[in-house]
Every structure is written in structure tokens, then in C-alpha cells.
User: Which sequence fits this backbone?
């Protein structure tokens, strides 16, 4: 299985039109590595029967049972490996999917939607798969309200600041988070009142730049401003809550950008397999890269080099074997006369 996962990662780096091309004998696709690791039939069988749950244990109505257990194991490791700092953010990300099994998607294209809670530099701390409205949740609140509290549940009461966009933001959510000693900083829908603060500390601010910008915050005053400079070194005065939002909202974007490098996702009609490949070779790899650089300040590595090193460690024996075969094929060969053959030739000449 380690070699199978390693091949999936390698295929994210080396792209070809069809899966069978990796084992093709055509001069256009002369790859030694996959042939040395396993046969094409074996790889396709493993991919076909790659499964993560016992279907007999499925709970009626649970549409994510195929991934629930293994997803929770990964998330538990994400949480235990790193403790988030003061700034955290929540946003949604999309995994491309056009298979037959239906998973509710966003309006554009066919994709599986996930909610991610990220910390600095794109580290994913928690993930939730969107499968529509959960009837076991508080139906008096919006779905975005409930998913936010679910993702942040283990981080409440520790004076952190949560950044998110207007899809998740609401005044009731701000009050709920404030009760749990968790601040909120987010864009609000149009119509907010300019710099008004409630007795409980919820501030709504409207600021006019090229367009109206609305912010809802529980950790800023409407009068706080900072001086910023653009690329042309032009100074501009901005509300501090907007500057903090711009910086605090970036981790999910950082995570998606790092995950997009040499993605191992391939076409397929199994949504759970698609999500599992994304979880291993995107989310988990980006998290591992963050932790590696965090603990190896003097030997930091970019995401591409890190990905290649992980693949080589999974396929180490086979990478060496492929390299040796290439060197053997390129070696210069010389004919050598055998000593015994020489003696026989001399004896034949004298008789």
C-alpha cells in the first residue's frame, strides 16, 4: 500500500493523458519507475478496490460514512501535531468531481465542497465535508452558523480571533462566539451602520474605499486606524479591523495554493476516493511541509522539493532500481577476449 500511495503522488508530478500510459511500451512514454514498483493490472486493482469503511456498519442517512472513520483519524493527528496561534480562519474549498454519486455542490461546476479551519501559513486544523443541512443540528440557526461552531469547538474559550467572510457571518454568531471568549472579524452584508458598537462589544463598521466595505468584529474599535502603503509606496489610512482581516483571512488561500502544486487528483467516479487522494497528497502533505519547516528553520524546503522527497522515501528501493537500470543501459560496453579461447586458437594454429 505504501508503494501504491507513492505512485499516486508520483503521478501528480509526471502527467500523462491516460493511466495506462505510465506502463506503455511506446517510446513516447518510457517510464521505468512504475514498471519496477508494480504491474499495471495490480495498480488498477488496488485503485478499484481502495476502500475505507465497512458498508455493513453504515448508519442510514449518513452520506459520508465511507470516509468518516479515516477522516477523523487524520483530523485527530492534525490537531495533536500543532496548536494554533491567536489567528485562525474558516472558509470553503472545492474538490473537482464529476462522478455519478451525488454530493451537493456549489453553483459553479461539479465539485465537492469542504469547510476548512486553517491556522498560519495554510496549516489545516479541522475539516468538514458539506452534505447538505444536518437535521440533528440547531435548526433555529443557519447552516454556516452551525458548521462554524462545529469546526472551532475545540478552540473556544482561549481568546483567539476567527476570520471569515460574509457567508458565515451573522450577529447571533458573533454573540455566541463572544460568550465562548472567541472573537470574530469578518465582512458583513451590505447595509451595516458605520462604526457602531453594542454594549457587549460587537462592532459593525462601514468603510468607503473604491466601494463600500462592511466589517463585523468583536475585537476592534471603529476608531482604530493604521497607515498602509501600496506597491507604489502611496500611503493610505485604513481601519485596523480591515487590515487585520486581510492578513488573518489568508491561511485557507495559502493552503489551497500549496495543495495545487502537482496535485495527484485524477478523473474517477468514486467521490470518496477523490477526497482521500486530496486528503493525503494535498491537505496532509501541506500540513507536513509546514511542520517540517517549523522544526527545520536552517534547512527549510519549498513545497515541490518536499513533495518529491516524500515520494522518494515511499518508493526508495524502486527509485534506486530504476536509476541503476538507466545507468546500465547507458554504459559503454567493450568486447574482451577470453584467455581460454586464446589458448585454443594458438593450439589450433600449430596443428
Assistant:
Amino acid at each position: 500500500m505504501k508503494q501504491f500511495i507513492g505512485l499516486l503522488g508520483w503521478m501528480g508530478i509526471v502527467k500523462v493523458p491516460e493511466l495506462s500510459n505510465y506502463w506503455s511500451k511506446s517510446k513516447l512514454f518510457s517510464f521505468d519507475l512504475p514498471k519496477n514498483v508494480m504491474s499495471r493490472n495490480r495498480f488498477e486493482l488496488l485503485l478499484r478496490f481502495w476502500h475505507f469503511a465497512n458498508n455493513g456498519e453504515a448508519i442510514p442517512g449518513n452520506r459520508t460514512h465511507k470516509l468518516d472513520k479515516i477522516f477523523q483519524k487524520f483530523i485527530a493527528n492534525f490537531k495533536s501535531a500543532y496548536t494554533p496561534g491567536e489567528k485562525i480562519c474558516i472558509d470553503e474549498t472545492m474538490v473537482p468531481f464529476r462522478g455519478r454519486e451525488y454530493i451537493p455542490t456549489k453553483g459553479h461546476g461539479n465539485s465537492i465542497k469542504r469547510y476548512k479551519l486553517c491556522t498560519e501559513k495554510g496549516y489545516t486544523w479541522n475539516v468538514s465535508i458539506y452534505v447538505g443541512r444536518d437535521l440533528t443540528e440547531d435548526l433555529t440557526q443557519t447552516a454556516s452558523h452551525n458548521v462554524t461552531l462545529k469546526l472551532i469547538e475545540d478552540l473556544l474559550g482561549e481568546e483567539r480571533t476567527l476570520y471569515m467572510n460574509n457567508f458565515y457571518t451573522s450577529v447571533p454568531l458573533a454573540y455566541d462566539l463572544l460568550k465562548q471568549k472567541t472573537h470574530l472579524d469578518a465582512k458583513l452584508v451590505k447595509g451595516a451602520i458605520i462604526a457602531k458598537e453594542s454594549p457587549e462589544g460587537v462592532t459593525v463598521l462601514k468603510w468607503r474605499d473604491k466601494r463600500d466595505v462592511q466589517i463585523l468584529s468583536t475585537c476592534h474599535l471603529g476608531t482604530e486606524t493604521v497607515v498602509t502603503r501600496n506597491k507604489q509606496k502611496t500611503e493610505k489610512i485604513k481601519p485596523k479591523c480591515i487590515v487585520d482581516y486581510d492578513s488573518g483571512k489568508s491561511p485557507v488561500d495559502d493552503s489551497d495554493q500549496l495543495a495545487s502544486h502537482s496535485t495527484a487528483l485524477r478523473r474517477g467516479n468514486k467521490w470518496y476516493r477523490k477526497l482521500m487522494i486530496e486528503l493525503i497528497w494535498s491537505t496532509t502533505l501541506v500540513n507536513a511541509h509546514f511542520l517540517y519547516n517549523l522544526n527545520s528553520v536552517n534547512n527549510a524546503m519549498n513545497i515541490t522539493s518536499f513533495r518529491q522527497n516524500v515520494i522518494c522515501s515511499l518508493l526508495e528501493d524502486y527509485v534506486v532500481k530504476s536509476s541503476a537500470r538507466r545507468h546500465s543501459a547507458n554504459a559503454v560496453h567493450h568486447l574482451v577476449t577470453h584467455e581460454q579461447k586464446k589458448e585454443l586458437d594458438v593450439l589450433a594454429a600449430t596443428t
Residues 271-295 form the longest helix (25 residues). The chain has twelve helices and ten strands.
